[in-house]
Amino acid sequence: MSRRPAPHLLSGPAGGGHQARKRFGQHFLTDEAIIGGIVRAVGPRPGDALVEIGPGLGAITQPLLERTGGLTVVEIDRDLAERWRARQGVTVVESDVLKVDFGALADEPARAGRPLRLVGNLPYNISTPILFHLLPWAHRVQDQHFMLQKEVIDRMAAGPGGKDYGRLSVMLQWRYRIESILDVPPASFDPPPRVDSAVVRMVPLAAPPAVDETLLGALVAAAFSQRRKLLRHGLGRWMEERPQPLPAAAAAFDLQRRAEEVPVAEFVALAQALAQTADAAPAA
Fold first, then answer.
1. Which residues form the Ribosomal RNA adenine methylase transferase N-terminal domain (predicted)?
2. What is the CA radius of gyration of the chain?
3. How far is 211 from 106, CA to CA, in rounded Å?
């Protein structure tokens, strides 16, 4: 997370007048009060397996590094990646974050099996794909603190019954406790984005409901595919096309509702029931 910060943040490899690149969705954070608030919220400690997604010019990277002595950064911009390689204590993964195997990252000897702590000012144009990309590794993560478009965080944390509640809400709340912790105005960035931003804290649930993530994802996608219509039009047809007979618990699921009315727990329970039917089906 960075922007054209105060001079002390531009010293060393992260300075040099780098221009934000639109194709990477770069907006560099510069507001010292916001930077301090994020660092306090993360609460970095020596020995943490910290990974920052998109360090940029180092507004957040620098204070994290000062408090931990070392961290890993994921940076797609080769110029910025090269600058960070020259910085002691920083391990650079030069890659598109959507191609990074965070499980393998957690297994590297430098982290010794410690849970990852993820931080980042995520590119707003691909923030949702990144959140879904990280989902399979939630069990390897201690917490996640991300700067995102405020509208996205509202959707992540939304409860049933409102327009913000949707596929993103269900899939993330099944696996994380989600809390918006800090609002960030456009003027805090260079260049300023055209939207309001916020910082979200995501803590993986210690004992999430056991469910097939792929099946749950397909079910929820079908449910919200026609969110203005009753579930029987989207989810109902999807269930009818499944090869196995529906179990009683699934057949009793109320399809005379809209998807936005269904709590996360009910979607999970339906996926669990459908998975049991698939497991019980005889081999062809």
1. 34-206
2. 21
3. 23
Q: What is the pTM of this model?
A: 0.87
Question: 3-class secondary structure for the chain?
Answer: CCCCCCHHHHCHHHCCCCCCCHHHCCCEECCHHHHHHHHHHHCCCCCCEEEEECCCCCCCHHHHHHHHCCEEEEECCHHHHHHHHCCCCEEEEECCHHHCCHHHHHHCCCCCCCCEEEEEECCHHHHHHHHHHHHHHHHHEEEEEEEEEHHHHHHHHCCCCCCCCCHHHHHHHCCEEEEEEEEECHHHEECCCCCCEEEEEEEECCCCCCCCHHHHHHHHHHHCCCCCCCHHHHHHHHHHCCCCCCCHHHHCCCCCCCHHHCCHHHHHHHHHHHHHHHHHCCCC
Q: Any known ligand binding at 260?
A: no
Does 27 count as an annotated binding residue? yes
Instruction: Give helix 61-68 / helix 32-42 axis angle, nearest 10°.
Output: 40
1 close to 56: Cβ distance less than 8 angstroms: yes
Question: For domain 213-277, is the CATH number 3.40.50.1480?
Answer: no
Any binding-site annotation on 29? yes
Paired residues of 91 in beta bridges: 72
Whether pLDDT at 210 is above 90: yes
More confident residue, 13 or 231: 231
The answer to whether the annotation marks 121 as part of a ligand binding site is: yes
- The answer to whether the annotation marks 216 as part of a ligand binding site is no
The yes-or-no verdict on residue 15 having pLDDT over 60 is no
pLDDT mean over 58-84 = 94
Q: Is 54 part of any known ligand binding site?
A: yes
User: Residue ranges per domain, the chain?
Assistant: 7-204, 213-277
